[in-house]
Amino acid sequence: MGILGRVSTLIKSNVNDLIDSMQDPAKEIDQVVRDMEDSARQARAEVAQCLGQEKVLAKKVDALAAEAKSWEDHAVKAVQAGDDALAKEALRRKAEKDADRLEAEKAASEQKVYVEQLMAGLKALDARVRDVKLRQGSLRERARAASRGGSALSSKTTAFDDFERMSGKIDAVEAEAGITDELSGTTPEAVAADRKLRDMSSAAVTEDALAALKKKLSGG
Question: What is residue 69's predicted lDDT score, i.e. its pLDDT?
Answer without folding.
Answer: 95
